[in-house]
Amino acid sequence: MNESRMMKNFAAAAFLAASFAVPVLAHADALVKADGSSTVFPITEAVAEEFQATKRGAVKVTVGISGTGGGFKKFCRGEVDVANASRPIMAKEMEACRQAGIQYVELPVAYDALTVVVNPKNTWLKSLTVADLKKMWEPEAQRVVTKWNQVRPEWPDAPLNLFGPGVDSGTFDYFTEAVVGKAKASRGDFTASEDDNVLVQGVSTDKNALGYFGFAYYAENAKKLKVAPIDGGKGPVIPSEKTVIDGTYQPLARPIFIYVSAKSLDRPEVKDFVNFYLQNAAALSKEVGYIPLPAKAYTLAAEHLKSRKMGTVFGGEPSVGLKIEELLAREAKQ
């Protein structure tokens, strides 16, 4: 892992919380705009950096963070060329794009292990079941489940301070679907932010905190966070490249995506950028802390891009626990 790139990317992510866009080159003849998921941001930013270097200043790429939902809003208004997404496009977003005449190609770019963390001074948590997480996060827990011993009686009589992504986050959508059973079904009395660095800071400074976010943000901050093994029914499992690929880290392993506007693909700088993305996604996603897809998945994605396979293989519905090869083999729908 390239540590200097990791530090640069996460520093840029923190800066984006205020600026929402970071141009790496100031004087370029062509512009590619990406926006959306903070989870996908480190990969897209790494790709943008490498791509701009190869173009020697001829193309500028800006990468914003407004959450998956916020990114899709901009994408379906035709304001950006690429939407970074930590979950598939949903039915209402498909309809917004359809009404605006925006067609798109859906491209998985990496795996993420959605990671639950606590403060290193937490001595009582050894693992979490999905039922534990549901008890903490379901809507019925709001202002009711406020202490650790209300989740498990052997845990301390101490405040349960929760940190999680905001409602525009695809990570929020996926987590609530996987844990509670319905996307966006969550208690509202927790500290929320679209900037995962804010969540890292919150958990790392509070002994009684628990939070969740993408694996790369844990990997970058592992010295000041404690990962919670997740028991999806077959015993506690820690998120890692191995457990994501072999399917044992469930139900919180997921593919993450970019969506590319068909109209934007008519511009050579966008087409070149996305092709470069797929060619380098495996190496760069691993470099910034994520898990590369199987080689076959990138080959299929490149074929879909070349043939302009429009739409989504998810049909506008959330999906949990499906293998990437199965998803790529599906027929896309607009």
Task: Write a structural description.
It contains 13 helices and 14 strands. A six-stranded mixed beta sheet has the order 1-3-2-4-14-5. Strands 9-8-10-6-11 form a five-stranded mixed beta sheet. Strands 7-12-13 form a three-stranded mixed beta sheet. The protein folds into two domains: 3-111 and 255-329, Periplasmic binding protein-like II (D-Maltodextrin-Binding Protein, domain 2); 113-245, Periplasmic binding protein-like II (D-Maltodextrin-Binding Protein, domain 2), CATH 3.40.190.10. The longest helix has 20 residues, at 268-287. The radius of gyration is 19 Å and the shape is globular. The protein starts with a helix and ends in a 5-residue tail after the last helix. Strand 2, helix 2 (41-55) and strand 3 (59-63) form a beta-alpha-beta unit. It has 334 residues and is of the alpha/beta class.
